[in-house]
Amino acid sequence: MDLLALFQWFEESGLGRAVRESVWAFAVIESIHLIALVTMGGAALIVDMRLLNLGLRQRPVAELAREAQRFLSAGLVLLILSGSALFASEAVKCYYSTPFRIKIIALFFATIFTYGVRNRVALAEEGRVGSASKAIVAVLSIGLWFTVAAAGRWIGFSG
Fold first, then answer.
1. Tens digit of pLDDT for each residue in 5-30?
2. pLDDT grade, residue 159 (50/70/90)?
3. Measuring CA to CA, how many Å separate 67 from each of 73, 98, 130, 157?
4. Cα separation, 18 vs 25, whole angstroms
5. How far is CA 32 from the centre of its chain?
6. What is the pTM of this model?
């Protein structure tokens, strides 16, 4: 089965049809998707900014990262669930969309980086990771998540 057939199947699924044929479903799901993006993005950004030593300096990075983790994870899960419903409603459009491909690739790498690298750096004991390493990790994290958000926005304005 080629990918186009798979994307067509998603679009013709019950979920795809329900979202596409409803007057309000797409708008409501898109709103949930954006709220999830703000929740997840805010949780990631507050820790990244702390890694850059640009705010909340009175709080240890690890403490802030632990507190933000549940918002980051919950936001990401909600993003993926709501994004899946949005995808199902216009999967064939997504198949031909360069911004969609960029978003999915960036989402994959941002998630792996966040949970595999950034969290380890953010949760490390004070003094175990140098400030230059923290800065590099934070800038990469911000860049990856910005790419996810920007490409997602670009999907709405492309063909």
1. 899 999 999 999 999 999 999 999 99
2. low
3. 11, 35, 22, 35
4. 8
5. 13
6. 0.88
| Residue 123 near residue 110, CB atoms below 8 Å | no
Contact 53, 25 (CB under 8 A): no
At 29-85, the pLDDT tens digits run 999 999 999 999 999 999 999 999 998 888 899 999 999 999 999 999 999 999 999
Check if the beta carbon of residue 40 is closer than 8 Å to that of residue 75: yes
Q: What angle do CA 94, 109, 42 make, to 5 degrees?
A: 90
The residue behind tokens 């994307």 is: 7
Residue 85 CA to residue 90 CA, distance in Å, equals: 9
Q: Is the dihedral of CA 56, 57, 63, 69 positive or negative?
A: positive
